[in-house]
Amino acid sequence: MSEAVKVENRDGILVLLIDNPPVNALSVSVRKGLHDALDKAKTDNSVKAIVLACAGRSFISGADIREFGKPPQPPGMAEVLDMLENSPRPVVAAIHGNALGGGLETALCCHFRIATKDTKLGLPEVKLGLLPGAGGTQRLPRVVGPVKAVQMIVTGEPINGDEGLKVGLVDGLFEGDPVAAGVEFAKKVLAEKRPLKRVRDDNSKLDAAKKDRTAFNEAAAAANKRNRGLVAPLACAECVAQTLEGTFEEGLAFERKKFLELMNGEQSKAQRYAFFAEREASKVAGVPADTKPRKVDHVAIIGAGTMGGGISMSFANAGIAVTLIELGQEQLDRGLGVMKKNYDATAARGGMSADDVTKRMGLITGKVGLEAATDADLIIEAVFETMAIKKDVFAKLDAIAKPGAVLASNTSYLNIDEIASVTKRPQDVLGMHFFSPANVMKLCEIVRGAKTAPDVLVTAVNIARRIGKIPAVVGNCDGFVGNRMLSARSKQSDKLLYEGALPQQVDAVVTKFGIPMGPFTMGDMAGLDIGWRSRKDRGIKSEIPDALCEDGRFGLKAGKGYYKYEGGRAPIPDPEVEDLISKTLQKMGKTPRKVSDEEILERMVYPMVNEGARILEEGIAARASDIDVVWLYGYGWPIYRGGPMYYADTVGLKHVADRLAAYAKETNDPSLEPAPLLKKLAAEGKTFASLASK
Length: 694
Ligand code: 3HC
Ligand code: NAI
Known about the structure:
Layout: E1 5-10, E2 13-18, H1 28-42, E3 49-54, H2 77-85, E4 91-95, E5 98-100, H3 102-108, E6 112-115, E7 120-122, H4 136-144, H5 146-155, E8 159-160, H6 161-166, E9 172-173, H7 178-191, H8 204-211, H9 214-223, H10 232-242, H11 248-264, H12 266-281, E10 299-302, H13 306-317, E11 322-326, H14 329-348, H15 354-362, E12 364-368, E13 378-381, H16 387-400, E14 406-409, H17 416-420, E15 429-434, E16 443-448, H18 454-466, E17 470-475, H19 482-499, H20 503-513, H21 519-526, H22 529-538, H23 543-550, H24 575-588, H25 597-617, H26 624-634, H27 644-651, H28 653-666, H29 676-684, H30 689-692
Parallel strand pairs: 2-3, 3-4, 4-6, 5-7, 6-9, 10-11, 10-13, 11-12, 13-14, 14-15, 16-17
Antiparallel strand pairs: 1-2, 7-8, 15-16
Helix pairs in contact: 1-2, 2-3, 4-5, 5-9, 5-10, 10-11, 12-26, 13-14, 14-15, 19-25, 20-25, 23-24, 25-28, 28-29
């Protein structure tokens, strides 16, 4: 008997219990166990029906992603699924937890499916740059109809057991032990002599859709609307459309072909890398895996501005109550008003019900004065970005917070150790750096101070995950990982203007690469006046943005900045800006040159990679993949390019280092000299990824 599949004959009902922690993936051991048991059952006349169920917290969560890209090991999934579907005895899948990807495809090859009401049933392969490759694109449309199927497959979003029952994906709901429920259902099937239903044979829902394809075409187009540069969503829709064209067998062959194309393509490789990078980032380097987090029941957020508001909403969205603290009633009311407006806007778009808005706002209690944080187990500070103010807040918190409370700052750039130094408990202090808009952006940089205790780090990672964020632990330095690399990029985007490039050219190159917004559009959104004032205070000049600000071009809020805005948020290239840049260059005695798009791209990306290499050398990030996670989830780096460090590996580090060295010389910029780690890896023909497997 296989370890991964336990077989038991309960009065003629053969129970196949998959036990392959942590998520019961369809690894080779599971496939082999199922294959052997089903093969044996063929000649065992005592077997009247078969129940497929899983041990642990979930049904099968998909194919084993770790096997992808490696030589296939028999038996293949198709062979095992074929045995299930063609079993002469009824097969019942009893599903709890998740039935995802290959897991749902397996269930679709069983003759009956029962599930718990909160089970997640879905085909999320698209999120890995793939499509369901074990018949899912052909079977799901036959069960739920092609319209529902295309929505589920293109978006990868699951439905729950309740909805599964409504759309016919499951035949019944159960509570409690899946094996007991499966056996009971199988007995009923036998007693009622229910005919064996093979999903592949039922074309009724397809025939109806073939008569009028409008609904299907509309659903496929809608599901594909936001697929920025990704190839998998389109391929998913094409496979589902195939159910309306040919036979089941033809559809399967088409699906197989498309699946292999995606599997071997660069996008899926990058997306699979991102899947594991995201999970790796939750493991805090140098901290024992069994470190227990501190208990967090009460949360306080200080500052109801842009970030404090967004962070509070993230907690409320996860059903966790927070106390939101401000300096005065006026600031508090303004902050709460903004949150309510945000929720109302989501409700107006159909994203949540009015009842949800009330419930979530009900979880946020506004208070004036820091004393309201006395009971909190976790306090997140999001006040103005000024060291003196932060120190003042932390000194006061030190005096009032309960012993063992975790004290976090949302600072973007400031030194966490300096903030911690004003408390008598630096071991409890760390950074939790959320990204704007905090209720939307997934990343939370967890900044480890010199004295931060291991269980405090684990608490922060845990709570970030509880509110649906993706944590990445980083070290303490100016701008941490994300903003430090962004600064390296900003330096180059600014310089490019003095060499002859235009804002719209730079932004177009960056967005074509897949990053949602270019640096100049971003600057306009953030407001150019803040940097201008800070430069004035420090006696620093930057001729082009200074000239823009002197002209009142403060960015989007002024209706003009690097671009002009005609009512909306869409940036429109402005001849006046071209004129202003050209005059500024003349004044400075500079002759603009034609800068190629290739150079722009290299100078937008490689300096970031170079800074990433320095970050690794200094131990500010433990793994190159952590840096990629920061960029994927904090800055909208396109997932199909895996992150800046992964991208550099795919381009080749020698090329990256050579180009940086050339730009350092050509533009007289020593900051572009390749970092020692980059040079070393390039010379050895290695990658950043190779550092992880040391
Ligand atoms: N294969 C291999 N390992 C997997 C896996 C899979 N399908 N799914 C999860 N894991 C691993 C994770 O890497 C992690 O490992 P670690 O502990 O060593 O870091 C561990 O299982 C636990 O995963 P999570 O931390 O994500 O656990 P959660 O409880 O938060 O989430 C989950 C569970 C919802 C199942 C989530 O892991 C998930 O979404 N998994 C991927 C599901 C998926 O995409 N399935 C389709 C696979 S492709 C496929 O089936 C192709 C087929 O069509 C042919
Ligand atoms: P903000 O100016 O919108 O809000 C700050 C709020 O803090 C104000 O409402 C103010 O009244 C309140 N406040 C000030 N002192 C206080 C005190 N002693 N007690 C209680 N409340 C107090 O600022 P924003 O943008 O929300 O930034 C907050 C922090 O988050 C800063 O450290 C910033 O660097 C960081 N951050 C900002 C991001 C952004 O994009 N805005 C992104 C990531 C981090």
